[in-house]
């Protein structure tokens, strides 16, 4: 049986993981938007997304080799446990309404500009190399 990490390394595995992640976030967003806490949607969805990513990373560490009591999966699992605990704390604060409400509107043009710049940076890395592209981007 192949490990989850090997499955993710295939094209279909990657698409399944990304698709499942996106679908679950959309389901959570739909459910939360129908509740009294819809003004905290972002404050609830972001911790949920990080908990999902942490779970995926944990599943990847299951396939790591076992070498002694403290193997290569120990430190990543500790980080994952801390990440999940902190995001559960943020999630509970968002659900309880103890966080600030999400802003009404945002600057979509700034976000789109940043996305375009990151895409150009990634293309420039292929053409100019990492160091030159990073110097220009920063």
Word description of this protein:
It contains 6 helices and no strands. It has 138 residues and is an all-alpha fold. It has 2 domains: 100 residues, no CATH class; 34 residues. α2 runs antiparallel to α3 and α5 runs antiparallel to α6. It is globular and about 50 Å long.
The general outline is globular
Structural class: mainly alpha
* Radius of gyration from CA coordinates: 19 Å
Q: What is the averaged pLDDT score?
A: 88
- The ordered H/E elements are HHHHHH
> Major sheet, described briefly?
none
Query: How large is the count of helical segments?
Result: 6
Count of individual beta strands: 0
What distance separates the N and C termini? 44 Å
What's the arrangement of secondary structure elements?
Elements: H1 4-8, H2 11-33, H3 41-61, H4 74-96, H5 108-128, H6 130-137
Helix pairs in contact: 2-3, 3-4, 5-6
A few lines on this structure:
With 138 residues, the chain is mainly alpha-helical.
Sum up the structure in keywords.
138 residues, mainly alpha, 2 domains, 6 helices, 73% helix, globular
């Amino acid at each position: 049986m192949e490990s989850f990490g090997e499955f993710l390394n295939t094209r279909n595995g990657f698409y399944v993981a990304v698709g499942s992640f996106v679908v679950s976030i959309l389901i959570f967003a739909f459910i939360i938007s129908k509740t009294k806490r819809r003004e905290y949607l972002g404050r609830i969805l972001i911790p949920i997304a990080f908990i999902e990513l942490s779970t995926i990373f944990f599943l990847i560490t299951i396939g790591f080799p076992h070498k002694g009591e403290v193997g290569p999966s120990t430190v990543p699992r500790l980080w994952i446990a801390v990440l999940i605990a902190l995001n559960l704390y943020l999630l509970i604060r968002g659900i309880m309404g103890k966080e600030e409400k999400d802003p009404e509107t945002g600057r979509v043009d700034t976000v789109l500009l940043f996305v375009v710049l990151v895409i150009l940076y990634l293309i420039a890395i292929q053409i100019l190399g990492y160091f030159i592209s990073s110097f220009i981007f920063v």
